[in-house]
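Appendix B. Extra example for self-study. Work through it before the problem class; the solution is given directly after the inputs so you can check yourself.
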Amino acid sequence: MGSKIQTQGLDLHYGKFRALLDVNLSIQPRMITAIIGPSGCGKSTLLRCFNRMNDLVKGVRVAGRVLLDGVDILGPATSLSLLRRRVGMVFQRPNPFPLSVFDNVSYGLRVHGETHRSRLVPVVESSLQATGLWEELKDRLDTSALDLSPEQQQRLCISRVVAVQPEVLLMDEPCSALDPIATGRIEDLMRALADQYTIVIVTHNMQQAARVAAETAFMLLGELVEFGPTLGVFENPKDQRTEDYVSGRYG
Amino acid sequence: MKRDRLIGAILLVVALSAISGLALITVFIFREGVPIILRVGAGQFFLSTDWEPSLGHFGILSMIGGSLAVTVGAAVIGVVFSLGLAIVLTQFAPPALAAALKPAIELLAGIPSVVYGFVGVVTLVPLIRHSLGGPGLSVLAASIVLGIMILPTITSIAIDALQAVPRSYVEGSIALGATRWQTVTMVLLRAARSGIVAAVILGMGRAIGETMAVIMVAGNALALPHSLLDPVRTLTSNIALEMGYASGDHRQALFATGVTLFVIITLLNTAALAVSRRRAGRRRVG
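Solution. C-alpha cells for the complete assembly:
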C-alpha cells in the first residue's frame, strides 16, 4: 500500500527563519506515526503543513511538496475546506467552542452544509461513542462544553473531528494539558482509532511515542534526523543525535 | 510609611468628595422630582400624554415614547454598522488598515454633539423631507444621527469583546474546514455575545441621554410617534427646552422627568454590567 502522506523536499520559512529543512517523510495509512524532538525543532510546524494551518500565519513560505494520497496539497487549486475535512486536527489544549456538547460535535457537519437535525443526531451519537463519551454525556448534550473536565473536553474535540469522517487525524501534543490517568485513557483511544484513521501525533514525551506509535520520526532544528519503526528509533538509533536525544542527553 | 499614609488619606478624601458629589446630585434630583409625581399620581404622570404645564397637566408618556423610539432606532442603526465595523477590523482588514481606522472611529466620539445635530439639520432633515415626506425633523433623523453618535462606543467595546475570544476557537473552527465567515458567525459572535450585548446596552444608554443633537433634528412635537417620519420630543429635550422658563410645579415636573431618565439609564447600565460580569464568570476553561 502507498503512503498516506508524503513530503518531498519540504522547506518552510517564517520570514527569514528556516523552520523546516528539506523534510522527506512517508506516513503509512491506518497506524500511528509519532513526531518527536525538543521544543522548537519544527515538529508542530511540520504537522501543520499536513492540513495547511500554517496558512493562517503571516509571512510563511513553503517550498517542496506535500502529497496526500499522491496528490500535492500545497498548490492553489487545493480546496482548504475539503482538505481540512479529510485531515482533522486535535490541539494541545482542549479547545471546545463555547457551545453545547451537541453543537460542538455537529459543528463540522454544519460547516459543510448539513443542517437537518435529524441527520446530525446519529452522527453526534456515533462520534461520541467513538471516543467513549456517549454514556457519560448522552443526557447532557445541551450543557455547555466548557463545563466538562479537561479530559472530557479533549475527547469531545476528538469526537468533533471524527464526526466529519476524516482520513487523517493530526494530534498536536494532545495530552500535554491532561493528568497521567487521562493521558493513558486518551492513548488507549488513539490505539483504538488507529484501526480506522491514519494518526500523526506530535509529542515531546518520548515514552508516549514509544507506547503508541508504530513509526517515529525524530526532528532537530527543522531537520528530519531519523525516521523508522519506533522500536528501532529508540533501541537502535542510526544517528548519534537521535541516540543522544532518546537517551536523555539533551531536550 | 508616614508619607504613604498621608497620601492615602488625601486620595481617600478626593475619592469620597467625588462620590458624595454624585450622591448629593442624586438626592437633590429625587427630592425635587419625586413629590410632584406623587401629587399628580404615578399613573397620571407616566401614562398620560397630556403635557400642558400652564394648566397643571403633567403627563410625560409622549416623551417616554419619543425617547424609546429614537433610542431603539439608534440602537438598530448603531448595531448594524458597529458590528460590521468590529468584525471587519478584527477579522478581515489588514492590520495596518485596522490600526488606522480604529483611532479614526474613536475620533468620532470627540466631535461635539451640537455639530452632529447641525450636520443632521442641514443635510439629513431636508433629504428625508424631500425623499420620504413629512417634516423631515423626525424619529428617523434622530435615530440616524444618534446611531452615528453611539457608533464609536459600540464599535470599540465590540472590538474588545471579539479580540478577547481565544485564538484557539478560531483555529479549531478553521481546522474543521470552516471558512473565515463561518467562523465569525458560528463561533466568534457566540463567544463574544455577552460583550456585544453589553456594548449595545451601553450605546443605548448614551443615546437615551443625548440632548443637543436630538433637539435639533427630532422636531420636538408633543405626541406619541406613529411612524418613523413623525417628529418627537424626548425626555432630555423636554428638560432642556423648558427649563429656561419653568417655575413651581412645572420646574418640579421637569425634575421628575430627570428622575425618570436617571432610573432608565441606571437600569440600562446595571444590565450592561450584569451581562459582562456573567461573561467573566463563564471563562473558566483551562
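Self-check: The two ends of chain A are 35 Å apart (CA to CA). If your reasoning did not lead you there, revisit section 3.
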